[in-house]
Amino acid sequence: MVKRILVAVLGVPFLLAVLVFAPYWATYVLLCALCIIGAQEFLHAVCREKVARQWTGLAGTTAVFLLATVLFSEERFAATPVAELPFWFCAGLVLLTFLVMVTRYGRADALSFSDTCALLIAGVVIPLALSSLLRLRLLEYGAGLVLIPLVAAFCSDTMALFGGMALGRHKLAPLASPKKTVEGALCGLAGGMAGMVLYRIVFFLCTEVALNVAWCLLLGLLGAAAGQLGDLVFSVVKRECGIKDYGRLLPGHGGVLDRFDSVIFAAPLVWLIVSRIALY
Length: 280
Description:
The chain has 280 residues and is mainly alpha-helical. The chain has two domains: 24-138, no CATH class; 142-280, no CATH class. It has helices at residues 2-21, 24-46, 49-71, 75-78, 85-103, 113-137, 142-145, 148-167, 182-207, 213-241, 256-274; strands spanning 171-173, 177-181. Strand 1 (171-173) and strand 2 form a beta hairpin. The longest helix has 29 residues, at 213-241. It is globular. The two termini are 38 Å apart. The relative contact order is 0.13.
């Protein structure tokens, strides 16, 4: 628990510095790093060691170009020829993944269907989900909006942990995650909403823009629910693969996927809502 708290104390200011105070391209660099590390963790968890070592680079490179398609959608790049290049590179790498599966079929170094799916999840699905953070960062008041999925997910995680420890009686999904309880999950939903109410106050003090309180409560609720689903989904993968954590990068938390599993699910949902409503 001490290591977990220490990592949080050091990690939160770093995230704030990159996502809020640094230029928007710093968010892109951070997400690229998270996706590359996440690809390595995911492939080593679900694939044979040889496959993971050989193809992590392909998944990581695909993730970088996918994130670049979002970065270059920014207005200053929209009218330039270079804006289309990341998309075509990303599409080419996805095509290459399928081409390798076909051309190596039947060989000792073949990519099985499950290996190919893992590569696409690591190189496309997870980066596509995390790219929602970059999309939020590029919006008006993006330096504040980008924190919404993190607030909802992390506040939910924290309240679910302590609520489950104090009140937990009924198992939520015992085969997927034995320690999670219904009471903890409900505390997590309340924590997501409470976190968004408090963040609304911070957002107003920093920008003098009042976010709609009803939308904040909804974003907190849905972000927390999506985050808990993400946590359970990645727990199922760990159970299937027989591992405790995806990595050891963050002491007390595990790897990148262990810490950001909830954000991977919460961020796309938050972006879809925020990009289509009048939040302020």
